[in-house]
Amino acid sequence: MGALQLQNIRKTFGAHEVLKGIDLDVKDGEFVIFVGPSGCGKSTLLRVIAGLEDASTGSIRIDGDEVATVPPAKRGIAMVFQSYALYPHLTVKDNMGLGLKQAGTEKAEIERRVAKASAMLSLEPYLARRPSELSGGQRQRVAIGRAIVREPKLFLFDEPLSNLDAALRVQTRLEIAKLHRELKATMIYVTHDQVEAMTLADKIVVLSAGAIEQVGSPMELYNRPANLFVAGFIGSPQMNFIEGGRLGESVATVGIRPEHISLSRDSGEWKGKAVHVEHLGADTIVYLETEAAGLVTVRLFGEHHVNPDDIVYATPDATQMHRFDAAGKAIR
Amino acid sequence: MSKARTSPIRAGFVHLALGAYTVIAIFPVFLTIVNSFKDRGSIFRSPLQLPGPSSFSLVGYETVLKQGDFVGYFTNSLTVTCVSIFLVLLFGAMAAFALSEYRFKGNALMGLYLSLGIMIPIRLGTVAILQGMVATGLVNTLTALVLVYTAQGLPLAVFILSEFMRTVSDDLKNAGRIDGLSEYAIFFRLVLPLVRPAMATVAVFTMIPIWNDLWFPLILAPAEATKTITLGSQVFIGQFVTDWNAVLSALSLAIFPVLVLYMIFSRQLIRGITSGAVK
Ligand SMILES: Nc1ncnc2c1ncn2[C@@H]1O[C@H](COP(=O)(O)OP(=O)(O)OP(=O)(O)O)[C@@H](O)[C@H]1O
Ligand SMILES: [Mg+2]
């Protein structure tokens, strides 16, 4: 029995079908991440799980119980929002305690849980402040604290880090990972940041236009993408897609990741001219116009002295090639 | 607030313009109050002069306080205005919340219907209203006035407040739902405090026409016990003789309650504007 089971979840707004039959099983203690392009229905799915939006059809089970008719507060979930959504008129402590107070929890128990959560998130110095007197990072920690004190069966995060600056994002990401280890709780997390998805997830769910494209561990998705969409979505820079015919293959499309192509000055499979080079320090990204394969992106580790208009040879690693049929499905 | 530097000349012109406007706006009020403290002769001889030892007189105030039940009129006006504002804000905000928060069939149509009253003056319905009040036995009660004014104020309130409520963050309301707040608690404890500036605006717009109205008190509640201050002051304005001392005194007195109410609301207004973002 899993922590969350979704069966054939559909959601329509008027004539617009936003979720097109979602089936998903989440095991106890799993960290599951929903990724997908903007507007693909990630938030809608999360809100359906939370009970903030009714599914048009389908069944939702949390910890084995069907929750379709259960109000959000009684589903045993907690949610962290992108915009923090702290109560502006309450102190940090009351923000965290409100849910428990509404549920009729004893005062001493509320105190204990708030103290524990604020210790975990180093929020003790701010307990008496109001949200307007906190920085963005502190507000997000309060929002996470508010979720922790409820001791939910299921945590729901909707792009919790996207309002933070880069440094703070990394720090809070580590904190969330630590939290998941300590609480051993089931978490569902929406993001469109690939790094967040790859680093935090036990399991990634790739969504596109309201349907699941693939479910798997980060490395499964990276190494064995089920179709063109997932292959293009996971990994940065994007996988190179080359028409099968150009390479003398019978498949529709051949895919090769930029990091699986090697570059040489004097010999190789594809001869090409560098059109643009990006030096990132740790990586050098070379864009090659090749005769055999068209425009190809190559990612080299470390610093390399390639200049635009240089003639170089690229060689793909044959063991890392992905092949797709005309419908975009991976051929294995 | 931006702290960009402005040249002193520019700032000077801005202040000059604002100052001039303030003088123009306050002048009639100032004149009314100043002249209410003068005797009849000096009001006409030198209306712009401040009351001096020779022209100072409280005769106007004496007349006002002796003639009729002025304290009663005041209480009536204040009761009617306050109760009407309260009802307009309460029902207006509730309707606005429903319109902006819940998706249901005919939502847009309902919003349009509720705002229609902004364009149609309620006085057009005076005859029907009077008939209704007679039928229900509400003539010469303050209830009649409160009902009419509430109806008069609601359309604008619904219109303004529903626009503002759309701007309140959905996440905040949803956080409340997950924490187990009822829809009423979300409305009263999360949404209302955030739209306070809009409520103050509506209150000010609602209050002034009610306080100054002569039409409905005259038609629906002209009895001595239910007279409002505007109606009460009319006794000093005759077709042939007008007791200007009394009129000016009555008006001066009538300004103060509105001024106090306005100050209460405008504090909210300014606080709302300066406290800024929802997040
Ligand atoms: N209340 C609503 N009424 C009508 N359409 C809606 C409503 N809420 C969402 N949608 C539509 O549903 C689709 C999915 O929205 P959703 O917010 O789930 O996207 P998302 O995957 O979370 O995108 P993002 O990454 O930008 O947050 C969008 O096309 C959106 O326009
Ligand atoms: Mg979203």
Description of the molecule:
The complex is a heterodimer of chains A (332) and B (279). Helix content of chain A is 25%, strand content 33%. By secondary structure, chain A is of the alpha+beta class. Chain A has 2 domains: 4-230, Rossmann fold (3-Layer(aba) Sandwich), CATH 3.40.50; 238-324, Nucleic acid-binding proteins (OB fold (Dihydrolipoamide Acetyltransferase, E2P)), CATH 2.40.50. In chain A, strand 4 and strand 5 form a beta hairpin. The radius of gyration of chain A is 24 Å and the shape is globular. The two termini of chain A are 31 Å apart. Chain B has one domain (59-274): MetI-like fold. Chain B is 72% helix and 0% strand. Chain B is built from 13 helices and no strands. In chain B, helix 4 (70-101) packs parallel to helix 7 (142-166), helix 8 (170-178) packs antiparallel against helix 9 (183-194) and helix 10 runs antiparallel to helix 13. The model of chain B has no long low-confidence stretch (mean pLDDT 87). The A-B interface holds A 47, 50, 52, 71-74, 77-79, 81-89, 98-99, 102-103, 132, 146 and B 169, 171-172, 174-181, 189-190, 193-194, 275, 278-279. Bound molecules: adenosine-5'-triphosphate and magnesium ion. Residues 42-43 of chain A line the site of magnesium ion.
